[in-house]
Structure formats: structure tokens, C-alpha cells
Protein: ABC transporter substrate-binding protein
Organism: Streptomyces nondiastaticus
Amino acid sequence: MRGAKSAKWVVGAIVVAMAATACGGGSNDSGKGGGATFRLGITEPKSIDPVNAQESEGTLVARQLFVGLYDVNVDGTLKAKLAESAKPNDAGDEWTFQIKKDTKFTNGEPVNAESFIRGWTRVATKASASDVAYHMSGIAGYKELNGGSSDKFSGLSAEGDYTLKVKLSAPDFEFDKKTAHPAFSPMPKVAGAGDNKSFNDAPIGNGPFKMSGSWEHNKKISLVRNDDYGLDKAKLDKVELAILNPANGVTLEYKGFESGQFDFARMPVPQMPGAKAKYEPQGEWIKADVSGINYISPFNETSPMNSADARKAISYAIDRAEIAKGVFQGLQEPATALLPPSFKEVYKADVCSSCVKQDKAKAKEYAEKAGLKPGDTLDFGYNTGAGHEEWVQAVAKQVEDVLGLKVKLNGLPFKEALEKQQEKGAKGIWRQAWTADYPTADNFFSPLLSTGGINPDANGKALGDNRGRYSNPKFDELLVKARQTKDAAERAKIYNEAEKLAIDEDQAVIPTWKRTQYRLANTKKFTDIKLDFFEDPNLAEIGVK
């Protein structure tokens, strides 16, 4: 879950809010077939093309435009889409997928095995410089394709029009789950290379919706129902996504919902109790315990966070219970593990010893071991406009009070924050969150903590999601062992061992809050509005009253 070139905002927040309210009105335009327009606000995505769709805004759009082999139900089970079957060989290093016949892209091109090979190759090729290519790193030939020594994905082949064969570089009995990520979408021939800007801004997909015009950067994205969709068609006629100022996007969403401009919205943390009191009795309050985690990412390679002792000092200094009660007013719960509780087969509470309870004495003890001294500066970065300011400030104050450090807060728009984290030599700590891309513990451990999840380019820029650059060969070995373990219970034990190593012994990241999400939804005009497995509104399933 996770930016792009910085947006140039030339008007103040009040002007933006007024303009946003003026453009939407709040009425739901009826369309042909009795549908309607569903409106919501987002901030500027990095990409809506699966070649590089990564943060929640971009993947939300990409999932409406494209459908792949699988989706994921809210409970974490796989939901077959274009996969009629998926079978591994006995060794777990080859998979065969049978693809649903006779579906097509919105330009009429067929969706077949070759279109999947085309899409996956487009993501993984070096020239695309994709931040999400690493999801395919287990496929044979990835290293050569992503490194630029080949333009073919040697591990992919088609047997006839609708049989996709995947050869892996090592066994992975959960590979089918990974194909639920948008990066594994099929692609039409017209897509061209990964940097085809006209396609990047107006992707031609095979999903329940299609683009209405091109992405109007920093302004809006418009989707209309794809009436030729090969699966269950959407009930909505249109989805309008207004792109809001990232400096106060959540506030603008909330104001937009109150004014009738938006049909779905997040809320600033301080406004949540009041919003709950007002909208829950009306049936417009949504609560969902989701498959994600909030955490702080220390930059493991650079001082002052380049020792486990320093990282543990920060973690022990945080009073999660106090912030949950005070800042979040009981609407969030402290996290003591990296995995979310929804991963029932693998989850264990209190994996992170330093997360269970604030311990000022231990915080000071570890700080002394690490050479952290009162007055030292600690950079603390976070993305603005998403309601994080209050709790980030509370954490900063606790760290200052307990350890005497000078915490320098650095708030940036989400896109700029992501780019800053990628820089070689990035230091300090950053606010982070992760929502599952697919329902396996590997989706937390491999992207966020494996050496391969760093994926540096020639200049040292981290292209993967392991922005903290944690690297431990033993941890990497445990992940490999887990993937090649066919028995789910035995695999869970290995994942438990890996999490204990990274989160407790090495304190690679610092878990903070479990991920409970709250939204406001216009249930007066729409039905069946829910948060899906990916924490997005289930646009393709929303009905109209």
C-alpha cells in the first residue's frame, strides 16, 4: 500500500474546499438503467496503471479498471475471477492456471494467456522501473528481465489460448494468492511500454469500470460502468473521484460528505467521535477491522537508527495505550505484532516485547547502549492530509520527554513522502502503514522486511517497499523455507519464527496501532456499501436505492 511527482497546489485549502463543493453538488445523477454517480475524494495517485499502481488511491482505481486471476474476499479467502483453476506441481515450483474464455478488454482485444504474459512482463521489465515489480520476483527469469539482460519472462508460457504456465525460481505454495495484486493484471497490446503516458493516464482494461476521458491530474478521475464486462456487471453508472489537496485531504473529504458533495469519506481523527455520534444512528457509519497494520519504520542503514538498541529505545518510549485513549479516543487499539489479527492461522499477539507497554527505564537503557544522547536530533517523517498529525505529535512528545531527544517533524504530501523515503541515506523514522495486497503473511514480511524488498536501483534509490532497508540473511532464509512448505500449519510456525526475529530481536520496524478503519457512507441513496479486503469501497458491488 504505498507517491508520485509532487503536485503544485496554487490555491489555499479554503479555496480548494469551496471549489470542490461547487463541482459536486451532492445530487446523484440518474443514468441509463437506473444507476447513479457515486462520488468520493482521494489524493493524487502515483499511478492508476497496474504497471506501477501501489498506494491505496492508485490501486483503488486500478482494481476498477482491471480484473486478474483472483480477488480476495473480506475474510481473506481467495475469490476466483478469471482463473477457472490453479494447480501447483508436487514440488510447488510450477503453477498452471486455466483462464476463463471469451472475456475482452474494452477495446475489443481478447483476454487470454498471452495478455497475462504481456501484462506481467510489462511490469517486471527494467525500463518500467516499477515500484511493484518485486511481487513477481519469485518467477523464473525475473532477475534477468528486471536487470535488463533479457526482454522475455522465461518463466511464463502459454499452452493454447487459455492455459498459463508459470515456472518459479523456487517453490512457493502460496503463489496463487499473490496474483490478486493489480500488478498481475492482463494487458492489451495497445498498452505498449510501461512509460506510455497516454495509456498511463487512460488505461484500457477489462474490469467492471472503464475510464471516461483521461486522468485530469490534481483534479479528477472519472469512471463509467463497463457494460461489456465479462463477470457480474456494476450497478453504478459512474464513479467520480475528486483529487484533493494532500495537505488536508481527509478534512476536505469529511466536509464534502457533510455538504453532500461526497457519498463516501474518511474523517480527521479529532472529528471521529462527533461523526460517530451523528452518523451511526443514521446507518451511515462504517467500522471495519481490516487486514493491515500501522507502524513506524526506522531507517536501519543510517545513524541514529542503525542499531537494534536505538530502535528498541524509541519503541519502549511510546505509550501506545495513552495515545489510543487520548488521541484516538478509544477508536484504535495498540499493536504488538506486525501481522494483523485477521491472519488467524499465523497471528500471535505480543511478538514485539517493546510494544506491550511503555517502559521508560528500558527505553533509557537501550538509548544508552545505542549512544543516543539527550539533545540528539531524530527526524520523524509522515504524510500530511491523512489525519496523522495528532498522533505523530503525541509520539514525538513522548520520545522527547522520555529520552530527551529533539524530534524534528517532517510532514510532506504522500507522494513526496514516499519519494523521500526511497532516497539513499534517508534517516530517522517514518510513519507507515501497510494493507495486505494478498492474503498471506509473506505479503507483510517479504515486501517490508526482506533484502529483496529493498530493490535498489543503480543510484541506491529503494524501488521496493522495504524503505527502512532492513536486511538479515537468516530472515530471508526463513521466508524461502516458509514458501516451500506445503503444509499450512508448518508454514505458519516458520512465519512465527521469522516475525520474532525481525520484530522482537532486531526491531526492524515498530508496530503502533492495529488497523481499524472508519468511513462515512451515503446509505440513504446507495446500498451494500462496504470496505473490501484492501480497505477500499466495494464500488463494483454498490447498489442504488
Q: What stands out?
A: Confidence is low (pLDDT under 50) at residues 1-34. The first strand starts at residue 37 and ends at 43.
